[in-house]
Design goal:
Blueprint (H helix, E strand, L loop, with lengths): L9 H18 L6 H7 L5 H8 L6 H10 L9
Length: 78
Amino acid sequence: GYAWLDTGTHDSLIEAASFIATLQKRQGLMVACPEEIAYRKRWIDEEQVLKLAQPLSKNAYGQYLRNLLTNQVAWLSR
């Protein structure tokens, strides 16, 4: 989906950040993850996703990328 988030003030920037954090936490999905977008559009393959995830293997972002390949983020499967 899409959402327009006004970030023209300090307060609206904080609200937008909170919205994104809540969405990611509740849905278990990343917002605007370039690697995921490229993978789902078939611009990169599984091997390339793994290569991109490798340097990030010790954090949640790298784990998320690996989970894309094991269908743990299944409801948006390719």
